[in-house]
């Protein structure tokens, strides 16, 4: 399946989904080789739901199986890379592990997954994700 990405009037546009995975007061964060921190995120494929994309991306990036609890936010993200404008819609889900005993993520080339205490989660991109991490909310499985 093809990712939902296009270019309109010189602006790259895509739709992505990510998951906020918490274990106690620790959050699973992805750190790219350039130091950028984010939640595990990926493009939605044609015909795929945003929830299915979160489950697939988590498994592809970490080998962890997650279950989406609920949609926390829809973020409109505008940015530039190499003077190329991007407009992105990011669906953010609260997720939990399908098996809480299996919480050790694998890391893939170009990115490292690690559990960080909430107080150390301050450098996520887009920056609004930091606010989500630090807002009180309940994470109860469906």
TrEMBL record:
GO molecular function: hydrolase activity
Transmembrane regions: none
Coiled coil ranges: none
Pfam families membership: NUDIX (PF00293)
Presence of keyword Hydrolase: yes
Keywords (A to Z) from UniProt: Hydrolase
UniProt keyword annotation of Hydrolase present: yes
Domain Nudix hydrolase, chain residue ranges per copy: 6-142
InterPro entries: NUDIX_hydrolase-like_dom_sf (IPR015797), NUDIX_hydrolase_dom (IPR000086)
Signal peptide: none
UniProt-recorded name of the protein: Hydrolase, NUDIX family
Species of provenance: Enterococcus italicus (strain DSM 15952 / CCUG 50447 / LMG 22039 / TP 1.5)
Highest classification ranks of the organism: Bacteria, Bacillati, Bacillota, Bacilli, Lactobacillales
